[in-house]
Amino acid sequence: MSTTTPASGQQQQHQQHPIGLYLKIWALLFLLSTMSYLVDYFHLQGYLRWGLILLFMLMKAGLIVAVFMHMAWERLSLVCAILLPTLCLLVLVALMAIEADYTHLTRVLFFR
Amino acid sequence: MSAVPLPVADGGGIGVRGLVADWSSDRHAFHVSWGKAMMWIFLLSDTFIFGSFLTGYMTVRSSTTVAWPNPSEVFSLHIGQTSVPLLLIAIMTFVLITSSGTMAMAVNCAYRRDRVNAAALMIVTAAFGEVFVGMQAFEWSKLILEGVRPWGNPWGAAQFGSTFFMITGFHGLHVTGGVILLLIVAIRLLRGSYEKSGNYQIVEIVGLYWHFVDLVWVFIFALFYLW
After folding, report:
1. pLDDT at position A46, please?
2. Subunit contact A92:B29, Cβ cutoff 8 A
3. What's the whole-number mean pLDDT along residues A55-67?
4. C-alpha separations of B93 from B61, B100, B136, B150 in Å
5. pLDDT on residue B22
6. What is the DSSP annotation of B136-203?
């Protein structure tokens, strides 16, 4: 294919970004990790705990994918092709949550 | 970017070459090199593997009637007399994030054709990865000594052990694979294998894999250790 020749290499975006940006994201990831660790350290419970854990998790994941993996600078066709299929997992999670709920009820009723 | 070229009617001739040419139509859907596109597709499939593992973990955890062992206590470390919750896991998280940072800097160096610094940063990344695997091995042996098995443990729901060993084991396998990949590419960089073509994108592609390993850990840390 023509992609290996230097001529077409110039057509592709080279993902070269300043190191300063990486260092800032790195610091942010450290901060977010510390904060999610503190959620456990201070024994937060209930919806506050789960909400904060999910919030910090999604923020960290977003930073890694967008900046470290350069998704923020890729063309939309690649972004859609890679990120949209992962939403199928949400369907699996929903189905299995219903299934787990049903299994749990059955176990409480018959096996305890 | 550049306009997509129209498909050529007679492709690349007849026979197998013609078949390949017709099916691919010699068109690029994604304006990235095939190596990068393939790495992204591999990572997508890997996302589904880890996604299924974590969903399976959610299913067994929320369907069991036995109390789930408290990860905050199970993974605590004793320093002197005090017990610090999740200390080792927090250090592992920071080590992996740091390795992601050095990897991103290696990609930057590689595109500036600074191959010595790129290779050095990749070796540092691999070293952090190895430290991570070492700490995971310590965590595993500690839990095994305390009696955690895939079929049971002293603190509660039996499914704890099987999900723990499967999810962290599979992730550790990925880290180990990444370390090997990093070292291979670093050695090739030092030997100047990419000087002739001047194409240093392989560093970015290896970087994608490494950041993915970090990304998976973010989810494991949140959903398994903190939940």
Report:
1. 87
2. no
3. 94
4. 23, 11, 11, 24
5. 77
6. HHHHHHHHHHTT-BTTB-TTS-THHHHHHHHHHHHHHHHHHHHHHHHHHHHHHHHTTTTTTT---HHH
Q: Containing H/E element for B37? A: helix B34-63
Nearest Cα to B153, choosing from B52, B62, B64, B81? B64
Concatenate the DSSP letters of all residues of A80-104 into one string.
HHHHGGGGHHHHHHHHHHHHHHHHH
Chain B residue with CA closest to A78: the answer is B30
Whether the per-residue pLDDT at A6 is higher than 50: the answer is no
> How much is the pTM?
0.87
User: Do B125 and B132 form a contact (C-beta atoms < 8 A)?
Assistant: no
- Chain B residues lying within 8 Å of A41, measured CB to CB: 85-86
ipTM: 0.86
Domain ranges of chain B: 1-31, 32-226
Closest CA in chain B for residue A59: B218
Are B64 and A92 in contact (CB < 8 Å)?
A: no
Any idea which fold B32-226 has?
A: Four Helix Bundle (Hemerythrin (Met), subunit A) (1.20.120)
Taking contacts as CB-CB distances below 8 angstroms, the residues of chain B near A43 are 72
CA distance, residue B45 to nearest chain A CA (Å): 9
Would you place residue B63 in the very low, low, confident or very high pLDDT band (cuts 50, 70, 90)? very high
Look at A104 and B111 and tell me if their CB atoms are within 8 Å.
no
**Inter-chain residue contact B208 with A11, CB threshold 8 Å:** no
Confidence of residue A17 (pLDDT cuts 50, 70, 90): confident
Helix or strand (DSSP H, E) at A35: helix A19-41
| CB–CB contact A64 B218 (8 Å) | yes
Q: Which two tokens stand for residue A62?
A: 């977003």
